[in-house]
Design a protein that fits this description.
Length: 276
């Protein structure tokens, strides 16, 4: 994965592209392998003994289709409850935000370096210019846990300030799941996108010149985002919607129309001009 260098802070702040018409630019981001890359352990459980085995995240996802079937994890299974395979992607109820697994894993990544995801520069740009930001992730932490983790970037002077949060939507957290009306994780992420767009209208008012962009690294997620953005474009035809897809070092821009989306390959250095 290509890592971009952090942008220099000492530069002019830029107004929204459509500020003269009253429009604002809203930025939506997935977290993992997009804004940052952190190593969160995953766990599998022996089918007979129920013994738990810790597996590094990268290895877990390399073996995901083999778990329980073949290879060194053929005798193990994935368990989806809160104490199961993704326990480090959930909160421990008895712990404060700064002791949660997300905070610990992110702290360790910042110490070790090489944590920047392919959309880090976009995120930095959005924070620097105080664009309204929505974070939409499959993680199951409380939104305040996510905010506490990201505050590390401010405290370490990696970011100039806290983000201007429009919404923080870890869709696997029970409260967020209920807020969005339930469903599978892909369904919840689609609902979260619509919620964030309509939250923008609630907080900032509707304007034909608003722009909404979302950044994600997973092609499967991008397909779901395209579907929801097309639906939103039908509801709000004058508003601009687009996606920046960052997958394995490549970067595609998707422009959204009421009945389709058009993809264009762009250089990573040009991402900011499309997101603005």
């Amino acid at each position: 994965m290509i890592r971009q260098q952090e942008l220099q802070i000492a530069r002019p702040r830029h107004p929204d592209r459509n500020a003269a018409q009253g429009g604002k630019s809203f930025y939506f981001f997935d977290l993992d392998e997009n804004i940052f890359s952190i190593e969160s352990a995953h766990y599998v459980f022996h089918k007979k003994t129920k013994e738990m085995l810790e597996v590094p995240g990268k290895q877990f996802w390399e073996e995901i289709d083999n778990i329980g079937k073949k290879g060194f994890l053929k005798d193990y299974e994935v368990i989806l409850d809160d104490d199961g395979s993704f326990r480090r992607f959930r909160d421990s109820p008895e712990l404060p935000s700064h002791q949660q697994p997300f905070f610990e894993d992110l702290s360790l990544a910042l110490k070790q370096g090489d944590w920047m995801g392919p959309s880090w520069n976009q995120f930095h740009h959005a924070v620097y210019n105080q664009r309204p930001v929505a974070l939409i992730t499959a993680r199951g932490h409380h939104p305040e846990t996510v905010k506490a983790g990201l505050k590390l970037f401010t405290e370490k002077n990696i970011l100039p300030s806290d983000p201007n949060y429009l919404a923080v939507l870890p869709v696997s957290h029970p409260q967020v799941t209920e807020q969005l009306g339930g469903g599978t994780v892909p369904e919840l992420k689609r609902k979260a996108i619509r919620f964030a767009v309509e939250e923008a209208f609630r907080q900032y008012g509707y304007n034909d010149h608003h722009r909404f962009g979302m950044s994600d690294d997973d092609p499967k997620n991008v397909k779901k985002i395209i579907d929801e953005f097309i639906a939103l474009k039908k509801d709000y035809p004058s508003v601009a919607f687009f996606i920046i897809e960052t997958t394995k070092g490549k970067c595609n821009k998707w422009e959204i129309y009421p009945d389709h989306a058009e993809r264009k390959r762009i250089e990573p250095s040009l991402q900011l001009s499309f997101f603005e």
